Amino acid sequence: MPGHQDGASFSRGKHTHTVPMSLHATNRRRLCESLQSNSQVGSEAVVLLQGGDDVPRHCTDVSYLFRQESYFQWCFGVREPEFFGAIDVDSGKSILFMPRLPQDYVIWLGRIPTTDDVKKQYDVDEVHYVDEISDVLKAAKAKVLLTLVGVNSDSGLTSREAKFEGIDSFKVNNTILHPEMTELRVFKTPAEIEVLRYANKVSSEAHKVLYKSARPGMHEYQMESIFEHYTSKEAGCRYTAYTAICACGPNGAVLHYGHAAAPNDDLMLDGQIMVIDMGAEYHCYTSDITISFPVNGKFTPDQRIIYEAVLKSNLAVQKAAKPGVLWPDMHRLAEKTILEELVKHGLIQGNVDDMMAVRLGAVFMPHGLGHFMGLDVHDCGGYPKGVERSTEPGLKSLRTGRVLQKDMVITIEPGCYFINSLIEPAMKDPVKSKFFVPEVMERFKKFGGVRIEDDVLITEDGCDNMTQVPRTVADIEAIMAEGRA
């Protein structure tokens, strides 16, 4: 493989994490090694990727804040739009193609970098302009271009295939690359893990600030603002990994609350429990943390019942998660633990195994237990060829059905929600109704929900929780009291 210089890196300042560009060189090397062992890939093959574009808001001249396409980021770490990248599979040589910017760019957007500037910044072997792609690849005697086409198993959307003027003169294979890159992204390198730890550390600290800041009478969006301010100011995170969920009271039973029609704009009331699901992103590497707590700083007896049921579920999964474990079995463990606690406290009654057989757990936890995390918050690779998605309630919402392996990063996020559109039909169902205790369930009708989410790294013999926030009732009440002192 070609040599690479020391020192090329990404950082947002001395107080932030420094990401070496060798992280991406390592990823390119892994990709080449994987493709070299693939019998479908012959000699003189070149990987060709197209980065993300600057996207305007509808028909205006104002653009959305640019964020790099994740497969391109994995390979090159380029923060600007309109780039292409190529990798010679045999030699590992890396080439970036940058846009040829107009001279008035200097006036509006600043200095135009040279090809040598870009070469040094991203520690690649060559840099040319986008309008030179065809000539450069012909000079490299590329026999086949490997382009990226594949469906994301979470969104159902297809990745963008690289296209450039003159590509018709090359042989193109667009079936090999996507499964190879996707599988490599599932397993994190030590350098990637360090960036993910940083994003988690930053987000954990921001969530601690939220514990201390919450008060009855605030609006949900103020919690969102506090989190984003902390992660940007203190840690250089310009992006969050997904739309913020700051849901108080009954809003906590809306799993993806915070969208445009419910933009975290409700008033936080005394006596409500709150679910906050937010994660910062750094160098496109994500975090995903959920905390649940009483708005006034003190758990009611009912809030404590549900919170401790979910916490027990989370800890049971953390204890059991290790290489060789099937993720859907972890989902079942989480469900069973919650159901056992609900029986213990009189919300439901009967045999828990019988409840599991009729999928009663999905009434209280309709979402999946967790998902891979990396350059996307719902990271790729959850359902490779040969791994089938369940059709059963709850289990069908799992974003992966795989066996856990070392160096996977996955979220553990059990929850218990009182969603009337699920509970009311279940209480009328001839099979499920016998399990409910209606007079007790009535107490929880406007409760909302609880979710506890941690980001873990699968290790050789277990898992390492990268999320560090107060979790017990005593610890949460203590940190909230500290914020009121």
**Which structural category fits the helices and strands?**
alpha+beta
Q: State the helicity in percent bands.
A: 25-40%
- CA-based shape: globular
Radius of gyration: 25 Å
Q: What summary fits the major beta sheet?
A: 6 strands, mixed
From the N-terminal CA to the C-terminal CA, the straight-line distance is 59 Å
- Strand arrangement, largest sheet? 6-5-4-3-7-8
Strand content: 5-15%
Q: Low-confidence parts lasting 5 or more residues at pLDDT below 50?
A: none
Number of beta strands = 18
Averaging pLDDT over every residue, what do you get?
A: 97
How many helices in DSSP terms? 15
Provide tags for this entry.
single chain; 485 residues; alpha+beta; 6-stranded mixed beta sheet; 3-stranded antiparallel beta sheet; globular
What does this structure look like?
The protein has 485 residues and is an alpha+beta fold. 34% of the residues lie in helices and 14% in strands. The protein has helices spanning 22-36, 70-76, 105-109, 115-122, 133-139, 177-186, 190-213, 220-235, 301-320, 327-344, 352-357, 361-364, 420-428, 438-441, 473-484, and strands at residues 9-10, 19-20, 45-50, 84-88, 94-98, 126-129, 144-146, 171-173, 239-240, 245-248, 273-278, 280-281, 289-294, 409-412, 415-417, 449-451, 454-458, 463-465. Strands 6-5-4-3-7-8 form a six-stranded mixed β-sheet, with helices on both faces. It has a three-stranded antiparallel β-sheet with strand order 10-11-13, covered by helices on one side. Helix 7 crosses helix 15 and helix 9 packs antiparallel against helix 10.
